[in-house]
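Handout, section 4.2: multi-component inputs.
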Amino acid sequence: MGRSYRIPLPALAASSLVLVTLALVLVFFVAPNDANQGFSQRIFYFHVSIAFTAYLCFGAGAWKALVHLWKRDPRADLESYVAVHQGVIFGSLVLLTGSIWAKISWGHWWLWSENQLVLFLVLFLFYAAYFMLRFSVDPGPQRANLSAVYALFGIVLVPVSFLAIRLAQQFIHPVVFTRNGPNFGGWMLVAYLVSQVAMLALAYTLYRVELAGKRLDVRLRELREAHA
Amino acid sequence: MTTSETYVTAAYCVVFAVVLAYVLIIALKLQRLERDVEALESRPQREVEDEDEAEREPASVG
Amino acid sequence: MNYFADVRALARKDLLLELRARDTLPAMLLFVVATFVVFHFALPAGSSKLAASGLLWVAIVFTALLGLGRAFVPEREQRVFDGLVLAPCDRSAIWLAKSIATFAFLAAAEVVALPVFALFFHGVRPATIAGVALADLGICAVGTFVGAMAVVTRARDLLLPLLFLPLAIPLVIGGVGASVVGHPGGYLGFLALYDVLFALLCWASFEYVVTE
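Output:
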């Protein structure tokens, strides 16, 4: 597998900065107030785009895990770990912003009837255990294998848990809240799309920065061992 | 500001704060890496001097 | 079939070991009954029957955890794992055999636990029994898998519940749904889907857990 072309890190960081700023401007000054929820609907733009980014990070982590198990690509293990780490960071942001949104809309910090929130809580617990697992095994092929297999479990757990939580609504909360779908068009759509791209760019930048740091760490450790 | 405005601002500030904290942690890690590199850089010098004194075989460096 | 002969031999080994040593099953039985007594006092008088149905599932999951924690102890302490991995059999046979043995223990514990639950709390519906049977399959498949992962780590017993419980949440949702809802078909179907999906995943990836 040849080394594919990568965007230089400074360019990436600069473009995500521009995109995030642009998204903030669009969200706060351009997009109109939602007819039903008013100003508070503006959390939506970041909340949903962060959630989508988190799923994508978990997906990327599982994909890299598969690459590791399948092709034994030595870089894939670290990439999988960093992607999952990004997923957990964005996942906790989903929990925080979702919790704030629940407080504005329904007056409670936590609602078990909010499927997305509950799903992210389950995933948060699952991936927190991923880190426990990883830090409980010495670095080496075995750790890479165990992490990869567990990351693959995660990507199966996402749809299964989603289905389970949907089913649980019937006996946990018979009354289902619905967020009235806003008339999604015009500037709202633009604001959402720009926020989405901005979050993806931000996540990718952070991923690359962390990966660069981790790789440096590994190389340094190897050098130190060679010197010892 | 109305309450909803406060909460929306708080939500965006939380996002910002978490990203900032993350960058801070990465920065601290990079600092540690830098220190490690410096420690490693200063080591071969000493080792060479030791070897001159003891007239040992140079250790093979993979 | 060579594969199934391997599985049978390995499962037989575990069952014989348990028959002779009687390590796990009595502990699971005592634990599940003691849990019911604790739950009886944890539920204030006048609590609904639904609450007790939910607690049944807590008891099942924790009893299974107790059994799963013991599942790979002989492999670890007597270094059987090294031998098994070197043996000329498919690695997934190790997982399948261990799952079957764990399932046997869990089912045996539940044969006692469900009547005791009926005696202490309220009757058990057929749908609950079907839910328990289906959930047991998933618990044993996934639990054995993460159990094998946990024994090779430093944290060992500490890690098993952390790895297992998030994966068991869908099972608990499906099981509780099957026990309390009027038409349990959807929940039972969900449990079956879970079993098939995760059993396939475990079967396909177990090799990577025990080899480098």
